[in-house]
Amino acid sequence: QVQLVESGGGSVQAGGSLRLSCAASGLPYSLAWMGWFRQAPGKEREGVGAIDRIGSSTYYADSVKGRFTISQDNNKITLYLQSDSLKPEDTGTYYCAADFRPGGRWDTRPYSYWGQGTQVTVSA
Questions:
Q1: Where are the beta strands (DSSP E) in 8-86?
Q2: Are 58 and 51 in contact (CB under 8 A)?
Q3: Rg, Å, the chain Cα set
Q4: What was the pLDDT predicted at 53?
Q5: I want to staple 64 with a disulfide (CB 3.0 to 4.6 A). Which of 28, 68, 73, 119 is the partner?
Q6: Residues paired with 20 in a beta bridge
């Protein structure tokens, strides 16, 4: 059974940094996509960024470009989100998502597996 477990959330002041991790387990074979999404209170979930492991490309939402960096470990079972220069509008619950199927647009394609989420709070 595939499981995704996020960690690393917390509370920081604006301008601070956090590093989120997503550990994947129970994988029968390699994932095609892994990504990060977030949801602020009262708002819809939005994409933060994702890695296309087959195409070896990384994608980011315009709102986080230049501030957030997605990476993965050499075994490709842990996904990271380095979040720098955090702003209050980055506050929300951050979710890790993954899928075995290739193709599609990173932020609108379906993801079969989701983590439980980790809270990020950025104060002004």
A1: 10-13, 18-25, 33-39, 46-52, 57-60, 68-72, 78-83
A2: yes
A3: 14
A4: 86
A5: 68
A6: 81
pLDDT number for residue 29: 85
| The pLDDT value given to residue 54 | 84
- For 85, the token pair is 């220069």
pLDDT of residue 74: 75
- Note the helical H segments in 45-112: none
Dihedral (CA of 79, 58, 98, 10) sign? positive
- Residues of the chain below pLDDT 50: none
Indicate the SS3 state at residue 90.
helix
DSSP letter, residue 11: E
Find where tokens 């939402």 sit.
61
User: Is the torsion defined by CA of 51, 55, 61, 62 positive or negative?
Assistant: positive
70, β-bridge pairs:
81
